[in-house]
Amino acid sequence: MKFRIILQFSICLVFITSCSNEKTLKLPITFQEGYGPFESSMGGISPYSDNENDPWKKTHLKTSGIPKDWTDVKIGDINTDIYQSVYQNYFLGNITKKRYKELQKSWNWIPDSMNLSKKPIKCKIAFAFGKDSIGELKMIVDANNNYNFSDDNIFKPTEISPQDKINKDSLVISNAVKVNFEQFSNDKIVEVSAPLLIVHMNQYNIFMCNFAQYAKTKLDGEEIAIQSNNFTDLSYDRLGVIKVSNMIDKGIKVDYQKIIAKNEYLEIKNDLYKNLGVKKNENVLVLEKMNLPKNKLYSTQIGFKAFGFSENDFKTEIPISLDSLKGKYILLDFWATWCSPCIKEIPNLKDLYKNIDKSKFEIISIVGDSPIESLEKLTQNHSISWPQIISNDSNKIKEKYGIRGYPTTFLLNPEGIIVAKNLRGKELEKKVTNLINE
Q: Hey, which bits of 18-99 come out as E strands?
């Protein structure tokens, strides 16, 4: 299946001047099929639970038209916009207020009523799978979103394994299903479409999927590409932004560490802009022009100041703050006690901490989403001697740094500027040694 670029929206560029004389720019975006300059990720999809006490039971789609000769049939759905789905299901009474508040907290999400519709929107795609008459795994997707599978194509999902080096750009051209769904745009519910890629991992017997759609805009002649949550949904809430240049034409994919997240900064022709995200209702990317240089702005990007914090070591209760450690190189190590790669890295950090001059270097580990009992056990079993701080609902250090996974590291210079990210093992040791010996 071949696809072509679809230009879905066109909106005039608007400049709004704030009271601080900084400019907020609203750049019109157009949606494109494919992954553009980005590497794509895939998210797992699961069928509906048979548990009568499932808190999501009322949100399950009611479908028909599954082939009569299928056995072991399972039905589920894929969200194009989980935030819109949860928002409207709360107002429809399909989920409780308690559950709604729990989700807001776990996602660190404040609903924007200007971008979301309380009225029902078809923002979920139904799917079904089962074994056909000869026992072969088959799948069907409700591509036209009419809750009836009888008019949709049956297909055998592409099999992949974790070891495969997959060119998802080629895979989506030959295997994606064009699906229809609805969005809230310009205060109206509109029907749109996007390619949906579904694969099966036989090794784990799970299905994975993503939406092959990204957005584009321009500023001062510089093309900007925008992806939504690594292509696992189309909410554009957790988005990444990058300057395109000639990357698409050359088939080059951007290094994920160069992707600019929400509230990070984009540099265009020597000007800095804060990425305030996409307003889906208006279909614009919102940027705020900054008057300060990089080394005066706080961000998790290389070249910017690291966010300050002050907290006690979880065991000694000794106060620790970034300000008190100025003059040293600092490794901020975000980890969790259940994270296997984090635990695997502990011996490397121990060797580094033992062999580097501590008058010039310090490690601060920030532990998130972990029981204190497991932290106590691990630090004792591994004889960890550097400070450990717990990120919690009070200090919100993890949220301040936008941590989405573990381990995540930031290397700071003596002025508190981030000079490297996500270094581990020998690569980290080499970088720290070279910096200290300069």
A: 23-28, 30-33, 43-45, 71-79
Q: How is residue 48 written in tokens?
A: 């509906």
Cis ω for the linkage preceding 195 (within 30 of 0): no
Residue among 417, 216, 385, 184 at smallest CA distance from 307: 417
CA distance 162 to 306: 35
- Please choose, from the candidates 124, 152, 123, the residue with its C-alpha nearest in 3D space to the C-alpha of residue 139: 152
Q: Which amino acid is at 308?
A: G
Is residue 18 over pLDDT 60? no
Q: What is the DSSP letter of 229?
A: G
Q: Check if the beta carbon of residue 31 is closer than 8 Å to that of residue 9.
A: yes
First-residue to last-residue Cα distance in the chain: 55
**Checking phi first, is residue 267 left (phi over 0); if not, alpha (psi -120 to 50) or beta?**
beta
Which residues are 389's β-sheet partners? Answer: 366
Cβ atoms of 35 and 214 within 8 Å: the answer is yes
Residue 129: strand, helix, or coil:
strand
Give the rounded distance of the alpha carbon of 136 from its chain centre: 34
> Which is it for strands 329-335 and 361-367: parallel, antiparallel or unpaired?
parallel
Distance, C-alpha 289 to centroid of its chain: 24
Query: In percent, how much of the chain has pLDDT > 90?
Result: 69
List pLDDT tens digits, range 349-393: 999 999 999 999 999 999 999 999 999 999 999 999 999 999 998
What is the average pLDDT value for the chain, to the nearest integer?
89
CB 125 within 8 A of CB 196: yes
Residue 269 CA neighbour count, 13 Å, CB half? 8
89-142 pLDDT tens trace: 888 889 888 888 888 877 777 787 778 888 889 999 999 999 999 999 999 999
**Structural contact between residues 150 and 64, judged by C-beta atoms closer than 8 angstroms:** yes
Q: What are phi and psi of 375, to 5 degrees?
A: -65, -45
Task: Name which of 39, 70, 76 is nearest 54 in CA terms.
Answer: 76
Instruction: Kindly report the three-state secondary structure assignment for every residue of 351-418.
Output: HHHHHCCCCCEEEEEEECCCCHHHHHHHHHHCCCCCCEEECCCCCCHHHHCCCCCCCEEEEECCCCEE
Closest CA to 59 of 101, 99, 113, 106: 99
Q: How far apart, in whole angstroms, are the C-alpha atoms of residue 128 and residue 73? A: 7
Distance, in Å, from the CA atom of 280 to the CA atom of 66, rounded to the nearest integer, reads: 34
| Residue 213: its H or E element | strand 213-219
